[in-house]
Write a structure and sequence with these properties.
This protein is of the alpha/beta class and 476 residues long. The chain is 43% helix and 17% strand.
Length: 476
């Protein structure tokens, strides 16, 4: 069997709604997508009954024809013929159809298996076979075939990716909606899925958000549960000294952002709650933004006076921590009334032009018909049911969520000044990198002068080797 050196993989999982193994597989794939990175698009198709699963099996096998390769728990790779009735009955509650677009170079491990030159189609039956296949023939190939030195060299030569930290003046103001719109707009503007990454380094809940589901469906690198998790009782444990220190948590957040952004062009960093959330533990949004070296875009509320006052209050919090605030995006504005979108745009924009010329208003998003709450449900701090699995509706986009995601991206494309947003973020990052370089040069010059004056030699720093931390999100 060939370990798949793939450019793009699409996996559609079929199973019976409410089936535990189906839910466990979807939970596994959620973690797998974080570890695998870009180029993996996932989709779930829950069926109402086992008979419906059978019908889907027959349909997929018929459509696949002679090129469809079968993989199940009993046979690693079978012939394209239909599985026998006993196997179908045993495995019918779960299967996946996987399409692999292969790269030009691939490691041929067995010459007796015929391999198409461009695309391969697989149908995998059963939880055990699917998880084993994904790990062995996709994950291992990606990390064994590509030396780490090559990836690091590419990253170094191209420079750090553009980073933007999305925060808000309060919880549920629409930060993740803006992140979704930003990611979707980048895709529509010509960025490839492999150029983009999304990460939420600190969160209050492990439930997937709409933006995370969207990223998985589009094949975008995504980490929606980062190293800083404010679980129930976290603050008390921190104050008792039972958790990692503030410095350790921030270092892990930076390492995770660096890892997700390796080889990317743009990294969208999602904040949690309001700016000061986590400050009792030294890991507020401002502290995280500073640690990951990302300028901030503030998501504001509707209105004029209250919207501007809240923006100024929260911008000053970030700036007191030495974090650059680029400007604001104001969300959920009604189409008419005293606080209509047009009315607020005119007055809020006038304020910024006169009193905040160093910051920019990037646009005003209309209030969606369904309120956009689907995109924000995971920002609420809630308690789980103690189950290890995640329902399929909380892993991949449902049809309704797919429509909502399209609405969000449409609104973002029509309302937000992406050109200036990207340009301002780039200018801020370039300025920060220049300051860091100048600081290092000054330190280096001072160190050399000290070494010469003492007649000694400056010590060379020992190389640091870091173990990737992405496995902490998935039970492989």
């Amino acid at each position: 069997m060939d370990k798949l050196s793939a450019k793009h993989v699409r996996c559609v999982v079929y199973g019976q709604r409410g089936d535990r193994e189906f839910a466990e597989v979807l939970s596994f794939l959620r973690g797998f997508s974080v570890l695998y990175g870009s180029g993996l698009a996932l989709q779930s198709e829950p069926c109402s009954s086992a008979d419906e699963v059978d019908a889907q099996v027959t349909r997929e096998l018929t459509q696949g024809g002679g090129q469809l390769m079968h993989v199940n728990a009993r046979r690693s790779v079978a012939s394209p013929s239909l599985p026998n009735q006993a196997a179908t009955k045993e495995l019918r509650e779960l299967f996946a159809r996987i399409t692999v677009e292969r790269s030009a170079e691939q490691e041929q491990l067995a010459s007796d298996v015929p391999l198409p030159t461009q695309t391969q189609e697989f149908i995998v039956f059963g939880k055990a076979a699917l998880t084993h296949w994904m790990k062995q023939y996709l994950l291992e190939a990606r990390y064994v075939a590509v030396p780490q030195t090559t990836e690091s060299a590419d990253h170094t030569s191209e420079g750090a990716p553009l980073r933007m930290f999305v925060s808000g003046d309060r919880a549920q103001v629409g930060k993740s909606t803006v992140c979704l719109g930003l990611v979707g707009s980048l895709l529509r503007s010509g960025y490839a899925a492999s150029d983009i990454a999304y990460i939420k380094p600190a969160t209050q809940c492990e439930k997937p958000q709409l933006v995370a589901k969207y990223c998985r469906q589009q094949g975008i690198s995504c980490c929606d549960v980062g190293p800083i998790l404010f679980y129930k009782g976290f603050t008390r444990e921190f104050l008792k000294g039972s958790t990692e220190s503030s410095a350790q948590l921030l270092a892990r957040a930076k390492a995770k952002v660096d890892e997700v952004g390796r080889g990317k062009k743009v990294v969208v960093v999602d904040g949690v709650g309001y700016p000061a959330v986590g400050s009792i533990c030294g890991v507020s949004n401002a502290s995280v933004a500073k640690a990951v070296q990302a300028p901030v875009v503030l998501v504001g509320k509707k209105g004029v006076g209250d919207a501007v006052d809240s923006f100024n209050l929260n911008a000053s919090f970030f700036e007191s921590h030495g974090v650059k605030v680029l400007g604001g995006i104001f969300n959920r504005l009604p189409a008419d009334g005293f606080y209509s979108l047009e009315h607020c745009r005119e007055n809020v924009t006038a304020y910024f032009e006169h009193f905040q010329p160093d910051k920019r208003v990037y646009g005003f998003l209309p209030e969606l018909a369904d309120g956009g709450l689907t995109a924000l449900h995971a920002e609420k701090s809630g308690e789980g049911d103690g189950e290890e699995h995640v329902p399929e509706s909380e892993v991949f986009l449902t049809a309704a969520e797919d429509q909502l995601a399209t609405k969000v991206v449409d609104a973002f494309m029509g309302s937000i000044d992406m050109t200036h947003l990207l340009a301002d973020a780039k200018a801020s990052q370039t300025s920060s990198e220049k300051k860091v370089t100048e600081g290092k040069q000054a330190t280096s010059t001072g160190g050399k002068a000290k070494a010469q004056s003492t007649g000694g030699k400056a010590k060379r720093p020992r190389p640091k080797f870091e173990i990737p931390t992405s496995t902490e999100l998935c039970s492989l």
